[in-house]
Amino acid sequence: MSRSYTFSVVRHGAGDPAAAFRLIRDAESWARWAGGPITFSGWKDHEQSGAQGSVVGRTRLVGTPRFKAAEVITIDEKPTTHGYRIPARWPVRDYSAKVVFSSREPGDVTVTWTGEFTERIPGTGLLWRAYLNRFLGNLAERLIAHSGRA
């Protein structure tokens, strides 16, 4: 029987929460800041990101030119909260995540990346949770570093 799992990644560093939010919601910028294995990023419908309007319901594509993961944006609460889900057949089912940006003092940013999923293959959930904690932790660190330059 498949089990459901949650994960939580918290990273803190010098940066700007509003800039970090702008970077994560702009699908086209991911390939510039996310690092490997994300070498391709963009919107599924090839429209501009709509910096002024909401991106809820839009589909972000991230990955490589050959293998792109589709992420449907579910939360777009400027400038603090971004959420998405992966609707496709992925190694896990029912994946959804939320990223919250906060600051303890001017010049710093805390990124809290939480989510949940259900293992597709029984017994693999702990492995996927460990992978997501490491991968999303690295992604959050790159996001923080680039938010200080944005």
The biggest beta sheet, please? 7 strands, antiparallel
The helix content, as a percent range, equals 10-25%
- How are the strands ordered across the major sheet? 1-7-6-5-4-3-2
- Whole-number average pLDDT? 93
Walk me through this protein's architecture.
This protein is an alpha+beta fold and 150 residues long. The chain has helices at residues 17-25, 30-33, 125-147; strands spanning 4-14, 40-43, 59-63, 68-77, 81-86, 92-102, 108-119. The chain starts with a strand and ends with a helix. Helix content is 24%, strand content 39%. It has a seven-stranded antiparallel sheet with strand order 1-7-6-5-4-3-2, covered by helices on one side. It has a single domain, classed as START domain (Alpha-D-Glucose-1,6-Bisphosphate, Chain A, domain 4, 2-Layer Sandwich).
In short:
This protein has 150 residues and is α+β, with helices and mostly antiparallel strands. The protein is built from three helices and seven strands.
Which key phrases capture this entry?
150 residues; alpha+beta; seven-stranded antiparallel beta sheet; 24% helix
Topology:
Layout: E1 4-14, H1 17-25, H2 30-33, E2 40-43, E3 59-63, E4 68-77, E5 81-86, E6 92-102, E7 108-119, H3 125-147
Antiparallel strand pairs: 1-7, 2-3, 3-4, 4-5, 5-6, 6-7
